[in-house]
Amino acid sequence: MTDISITQKSIADQAARDGNVTTLADFILNYGDRSQLSQWYGDTGYQSENSPEENARLIISHANYFDSWADYEKFKTGLSANPSLQQFEQAADATAAGDADTLKKLLAQRPGLINERSRRNHHSTLLNYVGANGFEAWRQKTPQNAVEIAAILLDAGAEVDAWGSMYRGTSTLGLVATSVHPVIKGIQEELMDILIRHGADPNHAVAADYTDGNLILACLHNGRYEPVRYLASKGAEVELEGAGGIGDLEKVKSYFNEQGELISKSMAAKRDGCLIWACVCGHRPVVEFLLKHGCGVRTVWDNTTPLHSAAYGGQVELVKMLLNEGADMEALNGYGGTVLGSTLWALYNSRRPGHLEIMEILIASGAVIKNDWQIYIDEKRAET
């Protein structure tokens, strides 16, 4: 079967965005189930027994954040007939693109735009679109002037803590804090800062049934370790699990009594989570304390071990320490990966400075090299 080129995927992605059933159906007809690999596939309900046209409609509806093709068609009909809806979509595009002039012009023409909401099922405000998270893929981007864009919207009267419906409900601060795009642009803290200075509440940023309503936990669970200390300094709640990611040893100790026991046995899972995040983020004092107070090097939490976590985080010294303490290199995580296997995955998909050294430490310590791993090991060694 013919490979799917980047250009062909881009054409299909554009067809999904624009609602072009014919182009997308042709792509599906040519590439079948491998179209699942494209970014717009997701959880669409795509089924191989459907016709290409049926699957194209499912993908288009999903990519545009509608629950059904009928809802999408209703939106498209309204878009062509409703100038107000057109203006909101134009303003959303300008927000995502960093087009300050167009955004100011649209807000001047119709000031009420500032607190209107998207007709898509995430119901975002324009300020929510600054979050680059949880809505249509082509708008999930952070322009370099995103802080300026946020300032324009806030000065125009945007409700700083207005929630969109994504992730069961979250504010713009919650979106920014858990999004990779502002991190890549190097402006995540600036964006969070302008929101907080305008009154954003870090303890009213994520839904109660999403990481218990705790923003620091939401960051950790989304792999956004960068902002947690900043958020804690701005008043975000720090509980036992989150304290591991921050490295707040005194906070961790506050959950233990004078006998070195947890103040409540019901917090054992939180204690174990604290250990895992401390391993990921490289907070050795917290790790050492917990290993003496109820945790072990073979503790399993959320289908991972301390050694898996330290290796994933690129924490070389912690990996050495855990191995010296008897950690099991061949234990499997939730994906069925050993520590070496998951480290190799990280080298290719989420590389950190310590990963190559950790790979060598594990091999020197006798980690089993499975299947065709030697090919990938040699390839990474050759890069140095």
Describe it for me?
It is a single chain. The protein has three domains: 6-63, no CATH class; 83-238, Ankyrin repeat-containing domain (Serine Threonine Protein Phosphatase 5, Tetratricopeptide repeat); 266-382, Serine Threonine Protein Phosphatase 5, Tetratricopeptide repeat (Alpha Horseshoe), CATH 1.25.40.20. The chain has a two-stranded antiparallel ribbon with strand order 1-2. The protein has helices at residues 6-18, 21-31, 52-63, 69-81, 83-97, 100-109, 146-155, 172-178, 181-184, 188-197, 215-221, 228-233, 240-246, 249-253, 268-281, 284-291, 306-312, 316-324, 339-349, 355-364, 373-382; strands at 163-164, 170-171. The protein has 21 helices and two strands. By secondary structure, it is mainly α. The mean pLDDT is 95.
